[in-house]
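Note to self: the last two entries modelled the partners one at a time, which told us nothing about the interface. This time every component goes in together.
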Amino acid sequence: AQSVTQPDIHITVSEGASLELRCNYSYGATPYLFWYVQSPGQGLQLLLKYFSGDTLVQGIKGFEAEFKRSQSSFNLRKPSVHWSDAAEYFCANEKLTFGTGTRLTIIP
Amino acid sequence: DTAVSQTPKYLVTQMGNDKSIKCEQNLGHDTMYWYKQDSKKFLKIMFSYNNKELIINETVPNRFSPKSPDKAHLNLHINSLELGDSAVYFCASSQGGARADTQYFGPGTRLTVL
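The predicted structure of the combined assembly is written out below.
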């Protein structure tokens, strides 16, 4: 079955530092992949998605993600995090399968 | 002008009761979804409707019954509530049911079964 895996349950970074959240997928063909963010007490919001073309995808709030077929990965990155980025981040595929989420904590 | 709204936001009830959660979207989307998020934040698709027709029905107890009176509404009725039903339930919608469609989520309904 197709799946997405987020190896990191919880990540803590300092404000202003760079961020990379990992997502791995298992699928033979090119998957459609999504990153969502869930702020405390809120629903999920789409950050970006990939389904074809350029493997580096730009999203909202300064996020980007890179699709790497050789590594079966779709990692989310941000060059400089802000305190408001503290949230839960979910990777998902087009089969509506979500990863288990990575909780991001920002320290001053 | 909330895009996807859910009522109620919180629902506390006793085991064995029957309850409903309502969802409405004003985005003009054709497809709506129900998800369950457990205490560990694991998010699982339950149902999906496209133009009032059921298109996804995952392995969910038949105590859960979705109803779509029109394409802007997708309600979730739960019979004989159990402790394990406690979770946050999210409604979502998308333009169509295509693979690349963006889903828009509601704020969630936190259900607590005592």
